[in-house]
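fwd from M.: "can u put these together and see what the complex looks like"

so here's what she sent:
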Amino acid sequence: MTLTEPAIADSEAASGAGDATAPESSDEAVAAPSTLAQPFVTSDASAVGRLFVLASLLLALGTSVVGVLLSLGRTEAVAPWDLFGGFNAYFRMWTLYRMSFMLLVVMPLLLGVALAVVPSQVGAGNVAFPRAALASFWSWLIGAVIIVVSVFAGGGWGAIDGVTGNESDAMALTLLGTGMVMVALLLGAVTVATTVISLRQTGMSLLYVPPFSWSMLVAAAVWLFTLPVAVANLVVIYADLRGRPAIAFGRAESPDIWLQLDWLVEQPAVYIMAVPVLGVAVEAVGAAVGARSSRPEAITVIVGLFGLLAVGGWSQDYFTAPQDLRDGLVYVAFGLAAVLPLVALAGGAAELVLRGAKTPDRLLDVRMVGAGAALKLLGAAALVGALRVIEPLDLLETTATWAVFHGVVVAGLIASVVALRNWSQELRIGPLSAVVGRGAIALLAAGGGLLVLSDLVSGFLADAPDLMALSLDGSAVLNVVVFVGSILVAAGAAAAALGAVSALRPVPVAESDPA
Amino acid sequence: MRTTALPAAEATRPRTVVVGALLATGAVFMAFAALVAVYVQQRQLARATGQEWFPEGSVELGPAGMMMMTLVLSMVTVQWAVQAARDEDRPHGFIALGVTLMFGAAVINQFWFVYTDTAFAIDGGRAELLFYAVTGSFIAMLIFGMAMLAVTTIRSLMGPFGRDLAHGVQAAGAYWHMCVLCYFLVWYVIFITK
């Protein structure tokens, strides 16, 4: 592999790269957009990446606060429907929490990091379609606002306790926002994937693309296989919702809308958020100890395998008898096999530590600690996922489902903190404070660990299927633990957001040029 | 003896616009395939429980076959446009793109006839709802493809042909072929096997 040959100057990238660098003439300098206008017109992928990261971290804060309230509803302090003003409102928040963490927090957060980091890793001046990247951010943000507003206006993904007033219209708006967000993420994914495929340095084979760029290429491919299926679900649901009163399925006054989409936040599709986490972890460990893997192609294969096991469009069970799918060999095999690449990747990370400098300051580096925590949480989630598909354990329709979800989501959040620390130069922000970084990682890891553990144990204790954890008997102590875990995750998200905002400061142009 | 620095070999990476368009096209195909899968699954479920899917004779094969033929012809004209763009042959490129747009408009017109002929109500039941969801999505995809081709046509009129524009037409052509493939699914699943 050689990185010294000139990058391919393809049409779009060349113009985009030109936009990303400092203006050469005084005329261009005069024409440069003002600071206020820049977020609306920039074709610098690094700036778009920063926008994604900041907006996602702020939404992470809001979503984790919703999580705290939901977990408070699981305790016996107050009935959940009283806390939110009705059973429908509780259901709306319960579904918002899950969809938001996936579509509005973890996926855009890692996409934002990728937009900033991938071009410099593969030797391109900018991403393949810089304006498409900007369009991706704004359509994602507008979609996110539509989702949040419509959910608070009585929309959401179905209702359990009947529909009143304009709630059906608000639900249609929620579906529109969800579709917008998914299409925007797909657009961003296409931009990143094209950058890796088409704009990497000549001589750099795909097998030797840096781990994070490779993991984003795999993630983009998996997103392209998975999110369009969810968009198709939305089309059917929307036509159904508008086609009332001869409702076939997707009834607004039932949780049917959610039941057509819940596969997205369950195994195996939930892992689509986690694929880039592997790339972040490997690179962070390598950077912390100053070592490179002796078998980079093995890391490539492992990440690819994990991506393959995250493809989940086939796993929706609304249109079939759930037992037909979930007792099937493929579903069980996917659940069990997901553990293997994570174990292998942990081995790869361990090899890096053995090859690198093992001084205490390097071993306790924020990136090292964060990568370790993210991998452990992800491993725990995959392990719970493997237990969940073992039929005699009877965990499928229990809170164990959310143990997997929480493990993956919090691992994604930790990976983003690590990425902020590791790639501050590519993101053109100041270095994330080590104290804030350690604090955020510690809070997130502790909170995530408590959530995974308590959701798993609650799942074992449940006498009957209870995805919403509304049967409070027998697991009151665990529900308090969930509450504490949610508070810790919210505090960790707040620390991460605070760290990112405080790291925003003007960086001299000479330092900011990624080329 | 002096050595002469040779120019670098031409880059062999796949072209950016084409790669991006192929990835986006794949995503659109996935969405459409998922819709068709729901249609097939629901129809199978209805038949398994002894229910009628469409009333006998309500869906005619004739117009659907005409649409298939029209779209197959449009595949030829799209490739004609792509080749003309590669050859920087402006008159042929413009004619080919114009004919393709006309074929697209003809298919939309034929769908309008099918909707009038079948006179399904969207709230008539699962079959009718999914019929409109699948065919409506296809029409939306086709209109998007026509818009892509129209933009390419306008660009070809306003500026010189070149490598970049040829890639743009190639990308639009790949999307168009995918649309025809999707219609093949519609034709077979909805109109032939009914």
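replying to her w this: The domain at 42-512 of chain A is CATH 1.20.210.10 (Cytochrome C Oxidase; Chain A).
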